[in-house]
Amino acid sequence: MKQISSHLLLFILLGTMFVIASINAYAQPQGGGGTITTGAATTPAKPKTKTPTKKPVNKPATAARSSPGPIATIDGKWWTTGNGFGDSEVVFTQSGSLVNGTIRYADGRTGTVTGKMISKRLQHTWTNSSGESGSGWLELSWSNFLGGPWRNQKVRDGSWTLRRIEGNWCFGGSRSRIRSVTHDAQGRLMMVTEDGTRESGRLEGPWVFLRGDFGDIRGETVYKGTRVNWSTGFFWTWCGR
């Protein structure tokens, strides 16, 4: 009887151990890796999102301001070549953009001109000893050419054209044969050649005359004022002041 009881006790003990082992096996997670959490379920954290970086707004490019360009220099002596203003010699004195000038007419009158250079244009006013006055502009279209309109109470569409004759001219374009030329208000022209020979002539509007052995030789200045074509076939080119 004692033997049966011990066997029964052993059987009960083994059964109990089997039940406990089964419970523990059921509590393990099915599949590989990870752990089982108990208690209240937790809300999974939301993935962090990057705040988009604001790109700078492309501003429209500022239009470059147009520059009026460097101030042209017109100081020195010029000869009026007609167009109703009257034959005259004008001597400009320039300080920066400010310009003052003296007008000496071929008929003996005098005058003054004042103005301001803006790039290559002279905005000016003038008066003379006859009581006349006017205003307008002169543009330095080329190195030896000034021209533009003027007006006053009597004249609405006047024009004024000047050329630079005083300076150095190269015979046939050669710098070894320079003619130094000057003139006065009456248009009397004086020239010195490279060997010191002096010759004379005169100015009449756009034409230059030299006295020759067989009469006057006429020279015509081209529209840019940088060349004089002579009736004998030769020419001068401008070499500077």
Summarize the structure.
With 241 residues, the protein is mainly β.
Write a concise keyword list for the protein shown above.
globular, mainly beta, Lipocalin, eight-stranded antiparallel barrel, single chain, 44% strand, 16 strands, 241 residues
Walk me through this protein's architecture:
It contains one helix and 16 strands. The chain has about 240 residues and is mostly beta strands. A hairpin with a 5-residue loop joins strand 11 (about 190) and strand 12 (about 200-205). The longest helix is centred in the first third of the chain and has 26 residues, at about 1-25. The radius of gyration is 51 Å and the shape is globular.
